[in-house]
Amino acid sequence: MNQVDLLIIGAGPAGMAAALAAAPSGASIALLDDNPLPGGQIWRDGPNTELAPQARQMRAQLAGWPNIRLHSATKVIALASPHTLLVEDPEQGWLIHYQKLILCTGARELLLPFPGWTLPGVTGAGGLQALIKGGVPVKGERVVIAGSGPLLLASAATANAKGAQVLRVAEQASLKAVAGFAASLWAWPNKALQALQLFDSHYRSASHVIAALGTDRLEGVRIQTGKRVEEIPCDRLACGFGLVPNTELAQALGCHLEKHAIVVDTWQATRLAHHYAAGECTGFGGSELALVEGAIAGHAAVGQPQQAQALWPQRQRWQRFADRLNQAFVLTEKVRNLARPDTLVCRCEDVSHAALAGQTSWTQAKLATRCGMGACQGRICSGATQALFGWEPPAPRPPFSPARIATLLQLDQAD
Amino acid sequence: MPELNIDGRALQVAPGTTVAAALSLAGDGCSRTSVTGQRRAPLCGMGICQECRVNIDGLRRLACQTLCREGMQVETRP
Amino acid sequence: MNTADVIVIGAGIIGAACADELASQGLDVLVIDSQRPAATAAGMGHLVVLDDNPAELALGDYSVRTWREWAPHMPEDCAVRNNGTLWLACNADEMAVAESKHNTLREHGLACELIGAQALADLEPTLRQGLYGALKVSGDGVLYAPNAARWLLQRHGAWITRRHAHVSEVQGNRVRLADGEWLGATAVVLANGIYARELCPELPLQAKKGHLLITDRYPAQIHHTLVELGYVTSAHNSQGPSVAFNVQQRPTGQLFVGSSRQFDNQGPGVEAWMLGRMLKRATDFLPALGQMNAIRSWTGLRAASPDGLPLIGEHPEQPGLWLAVGHEGLGVTTAPGTARLLAAQLLRTTSPLAPEPYSPKRFPGISAHA
Which residue, A136, A312, C185, C244, could crosslink A131 as a Cys pair with Cβ 3.0–4.6 Å? Predict the structure, then answer.
């Protein structure tokens, strides 16, 4: 069993900042991340990617601390006992015992069902960006990006940079909401600059996908903009409706959640003693906010309150940006109800909307239709069933991700 | 430049390429067949949706979170 | 003014089977269920004839034969499979138990045969080497209990109505709902498993917690329900926590792994150490399991009676209240027989089995307590 002073889950901006803030204290630190390389989503590395200078710098710094141990391609599987987690990488599973824990588990995209969304060629918006960074070729491909949030522009920029033809960026929020958000960016100049840089002439507001078209794979999309409906032939549709914090581990540990985000105090401490959280898992806010929250958590976790406190004004500044963001990109009723009766809602078990209508709760639906019984453990379909029916899934049980049974054997500690 | 095998087809990729990308480079990008027989491809790109489950050297893994290695045997129809 | 001829409390497999049987006899049945997590949703859905004692064997055999009659009429989503059970022997002692079981079951007319080590390896190549052999019980099977219960509740149409409500009190043939409403019938059947203790604390029922785990979908690995003979010793005779190898491959291709038993009251949460122990036992028998991906684990609470037999019959102290509880791990298996036994007593018709071994009167504590 590994013993560490500080265990950090997630090596995106928040996790890396936490590790670097805590490192000078000399505490033994384990930094876990489920991707092959650190950086999270926003700083995802890949064969054709140019990492942001800050990302490169932080990764180099991480490597420079002998008391930081990075475990990539590693997922948390179960709570073995108080302060002990069972984790797994492609080779093996093992136990890690910690004194303090910082959750930097980030967020995932909200993917809502619409006709044709299961066709090869349809991905999330952040999903396409991640896939491109991992080496998926898009040169010469016609791409439509849709859904909601600033991620659409970031995804479009990545696709364009790799030679794709972005035909449309369809933002479901109204022009008023988007323009209002853009206008408020003056308070955060580098964000305004980013927005200008990312701005795409094919951007339309009040615009959403009605259906993805094609037989065996995507051939086009049907989009509604205001009252106008049009069909656009394309090779890829990247559609995501904003971000949802990854809170399963926090829930399993017993941390308090509100509006699907982990609740933390000014020290980034959760209501569970010795457990902290930082970054998108505490609420969507972008990388700048994640960095400062991570640093505060890192300092707080190793008993450096003054250094943590010194960062509060910076956090406050970026929190205001985050609040503006969340107000602007609220989902309209229309996009919650795109599914037709034969549209699949649970992709793992191929359960249609028609099969679910008439069920009374998440659990009843699961037992009767198998919705949520598949490998994604309800992560994708619960977003949809929440939006469509208002169902809340129960707290997660182990394994928190599909895991080899050989790994789970280690939960049997004879003592 | 690692060389791997996808559904019997050999492919060379740049170092750091994910298996998910290799699926697109080698063929139609599809990773698995759904329970009702539809072909599926990676969706979320970040290890959540489980659509990119493939067999890699006999073990079921997520293609989007696995880097290509020399000699890997990848099956999308195990 | 009666709400129905019979009120059944609990829409799990026992309540559903009882309602089905009563409806088939021309009675109007109201089934009330609180929709709380319970054993029918949690369990392995196996149809397995056990022979710890003649009464258990009689009830199980009759019931599984009835399930086999029903199977062709059941929809696909009930996932009924007649895949048989292999009782595995790890050593000579266990093989002797297998032989004795073989004799008992054969005398009772069940199709079964003893399998030697080589034949076992041929039947189930993924089992570890070095097993002594097995007893194959061909008539056993598996099904998906939640949908089987639903089928039973639906197949007599309007004779059975369902209501989602919480019963907070029972008095003979009347029940009071949580909102204060009283409902009456000619008879009330208590069939809500572990929750029966809430309404009748005098019933000698104890919760036996079990852990379960299921894998992702895989090509066919095993063809029968595989159970270790140690199951019989550990399951029924021990008081402390125990595990026993019990694995089936579902029609989906998922491997469904059990089993564990605990009497202590840790609540329904999954306990990591117990899950690990159960899986260790499972991989001892099925090494290939180690490389397969688990996707879900959960627990269920079995309602166990002191002698391992259910309570089927009228409550000794409350005329009009009928009990169908205490099935422990055999609820799904014995649901048809339970329903017929209960209905026969209630309607004073010929019972398919001698009812005395399952009579609630055998527990004098029920009367003493009440």
Answer: A136
Confidence of residue B72 (pLDDT cuts 50, 70, 90): very high
Report ipTM (2 d.p.). 0.98
Mean pLDDT to the nearest integer, C273-302? 97
- Looking at the domain assignment, is residue A125 inside a domain? yes
Which residue is associated with the tokens 């050989």? A406
Q: What pLDDT digit, counting tens, does each position of C340-366 carry?
A: 999 999 999 999 999 999 999 999 989
- pLDDT surpasses 80 at C91: yes
Residue with the two structure tokens 């007593």: C345
CATH code of the domain in which A316 resides: 3.50.50.60
Which range (A83-92, A248-257, A299-308, A318-327) has the least confidence? A318-327
The answer to whether C331 and C39 are in contact (CB under 8 A) is yes
Same domain, yes or no, for A151 and A295? Answer: no
pLDDT tens-digit series, residues A38-52 = 999 999 999 978 899
Question: CB of A92 within 8 Å of any CB in chain C?
Answer: no
Specify the number of domains making up chain B: 1
**Closest Cβ opposite residue A368 in set C150, C216, C294:** C150
pLDDT digits (tens, 9 = 90+) for A154-183: 999 999 999 999 999 999 998 888 888 787
Last residue of a domain, one of A325, A349, A376: A325
pLDDT digits (tens, 9 = 90+) for C35-70: 998 999 999 999 999 999 999 999 999 999 999 999
Who among B29, B35, B50 is closest to A376 (CB)? Answer: B50
Q: Which residue has the tokens 């008439």?
A: A358
What does residue C19 show for φ and ψ, rounded to 5 degrees?
Answer: -60, -45
A53 touches chain B (CB under 8 A): no
pLDDT at C170 over 50: yes
In a shared domain, residues A254 and A226? no
Domain around A16: 2-108+244-325
Q: Test A411 with C273 for CB contact under 8 angstroms.
A: yes
Q: Determine the structural domain holding residue B16 and report its residue range.
A: 3-75
Number of domains in chain A: 3
Buried b (16+ CB within 10 A) or exposed e, A280-310: bbbbbbbbbbbbbbbbbbbbbbbebeebbee
**Is residue A222 domain-shared with residue A156, that is, in the same domain?**
yes
Nearest CA in chain B to A122: B43
Residue A334 within any structural domain of the chain: no
Continuous segment of H or E residues that includes residue C188:
strand C182-190
Q: What pTM does this model have?
A: 0.95
- Asked whether the bond before A25 is cis by omega within 30 degrees of 0, the reply is no
R_g of chain A computed on alpha carbons: 21
Q: In the prediction, which pLDDT does C370 show?
A: 53
**A200 and A128 inside one domain:** yes
CATH code at position B34:
3.10.20.30
Partnered with residue A109 across adjacent β-strands are: A243
Based on the fold, state whether residues A103 and A248 are members of the same structural domain: yes
The verdict on A220 and A143 lying in the same domain is: yes
> Does C295 sit within 8 Å of A375, measured CB to CB?
yes
User: Does position A415 have pLDDT exceeding 50, yes or no?
Assistant: no
B44 closest CB neighbour out of A108, A135, A136: A108
Asked whether the beta carbons of residue C273 and residue A86 sit closer than 8 angstroms, the reply is no
Question: Are the C-beta atoms of residues B26 and B51 closer than 8 Å to each other?
Answer: no
